[in-house]
Design brief:
Conserved hypothetical protein from pyrococcus furiosus pfu- 392566-001, ParB domain; 5-stranded mixed sheet; two-stranded antiparallel sheet; 13 helices; about 50% helix; binds zinc ion
C-alpha cells in the first residue's frame, strides 16, 4: 500500500543517527524501493514503525509516496490478505508496544482525571468503579496475536534502555532477552561483592550521562549512589501498577481505595524520579558544584530538570557534541 510521505509521522523513540543517505537515495531513484517501510495507524495518523533511513532517502530522491507494510492495530484498516500475513520483526513489535502503551496510559490517565473530578463533585462514594482492562492486555489486543505477558516483557525490555538486551530481543527472542534483563537486574541488586570499590581512575569507571557526556570523577560516587535509587523508584512504579490493576479488576479488598490514590502514586513516582541522575550539570559541568545554584551542589540534573530548565539549543548542542 502506498502512502504519502508527508502523511507519515515519526515517533521520537525511533529517531537515530541516519548516516549518509545519498547512496540509498540514488538506488531508490534507479531501482525503486526494494524493501517497504512499516507503518501503523494511531489516532487516525500514520506513524512509522521501521524504516526511517529508507523514508528519508525516498524523500530526498523526490518521491511523494512510499510503499508501506501496514501493522494493523485495532483491525481497522482494509489491507489485502498478503499484508495481513506479513510477519513483523521483533524490532517493529517493540516500537508498536511502546507506542500503544503510551497511548493506553494516556487514555487511562484521562479516565482517572475524570474519575477524580467526579469524586470531588459528589464525594468518594459517588464515584463509579472504572472498569478497564489492564494496559498490557489492551496493548496485546490491539496488536493481535501476542499475549499480555509478552507485552509486559517487551515493555520491560524497552524500558531497560540496555542496548545488549534490546539487540538480543531483536535478533534472538523476546524471552531470551527478558531472561538476560532479569539476570542483569539481579546482578545489580547484589552490588559487586566480588569487586570492592576501585579507585575512580580505573578505566572501567568511565561513565557517561544520558547525553553522552562523561561524568567527572569528583561526582562519580554520588552519581552511582543516586543511580542505585532507581530500584526503589521501580518499586514505587510496581506498587502503582498493583493498585491500578486491583482497581481495574474491582478487587473487593480495595474498596476503600480510589483512583485518586493511583494518581497520587504517579505524582509520587515522578517526584522520586528526580533523585535519579540524567545529565551532568550544564553550568558547573560537575566541577566544584558546591556553589552551583542550578544543580544545587550535586553536579548533575534529573531528567525533569534537564528538560525543564536547560534551553533546547544547549541541550541539542551537547547531544550533538557527544555523538
Ligand atoms: Zn551545577
Amino acid at each position: 500500500m502506498k502512502i504519502a510521505l508527508t502523511d507519515i509521522g515519526t515517533p521520537k523513540r525511533i529517531r537515530k543517527d541516519l548516516g549518509d543517505l545519498s547512496k540509498l537515495a540514488s538506488s531508490i531513484k534507479t531501482k525503486g524501493l526494494i524493501n517497504p517501510i512499516t507503518v501503523a495507524k494511531l489516532d487516525g495518523k500514520w506513524v512509522l514503525l521501521a524504516g526511517l533511513r529508507r523514508m528519508k532517502a525516498a524523500q530526498s530522491a523526490g518521491l511523494d509516496t512510499i510503499e508501506c507494510n501496514i501493522m494493523d492495530f485495532d483491525r481497522e484498516i482494509e489491507v489485502d490478505e498478503n499484508m495481513h500475513r506479513k510477519d513483523f520483526s521483533r524490532a517493529e513489535l517493540r516500537t508498536a508496544v511502546a507506542l500503544l502503551w503510551d497511548d493506553e496510559e494516556k487514555k487511562a490517565q484521562e479516565r482517572r482525571q475524570l474519575a477524580r473530578q467526579r469524586e470531588q463533585i459528589g464525594g468518594a462514594d459517588s464515584a463509579p468503579p472504572i472498569g478497564r482492562e489492564k494496559t498490557r492486555n489492551a496493548v496485546a489486543r490491539r496488536i493481535g496475536g501476542i499475549s499480555g505477558d509478552t507485552v509486559e516483557k517487551i515493555k520491560a525490555i524497552n524500558d531497560s534502555n540496555d542496548p545488549q538486551v534490546q539487540k538480543r530481543a531483536d535478533t534472538k527472542s523476546i524471552d531470551s532477552a527478558y531472561k538476560l534483563l532479569k539476570a542483569k537486574q539481579q546482578q545489580k541488586q547484589t552490588p559487586a561483592a566480588a569487586s570492592p570499590s576501585k579507585p575512580s581512575t580505573d578505566k572501567a569507571d568511565i561513565i557517561v550521562d544520558k547525553t553522552g557526556t562523561q561524568v567527572p570523577a569528583g561526582i562519580l560516587e554520588q552519581w552511582r549512589r543516586a543511580e542505585g535509587f532507581a530500584a526503589e523508584v521501580r518499586r514505587m512504579s510496581d506498587l502503582k501498577c498493583l493498585v491500578d490493576d486491583a482497581l481495574a479488576e474491582q478487587d473487593p479488598i480495595f474498596v476503600e481505595i480510589t483512583n485518586t490514590t493511583v494518581a497520587r502514586m504517579i505524582d509520587c513516582y515522578n517526584d522520586l524520579k528526580r533523585v535519579l541522575p540524567y545529565a551532568v550539570c550544564y553550568t558547573c559541568a560537575g566541577h566544584k558544584p558546591q556553589r552551583c545554584t542550578v544543580c544545587k551542589g550535586r553536579g548533575w540534573l534529573s531528567e525533569f530538570l534537564w528538560h525543564s530548565i536547560v534551553p533546547a539549543t544547549l541541550r541539542e548542542l551537547r547531544e550533538a557534541r557527544s555523538k
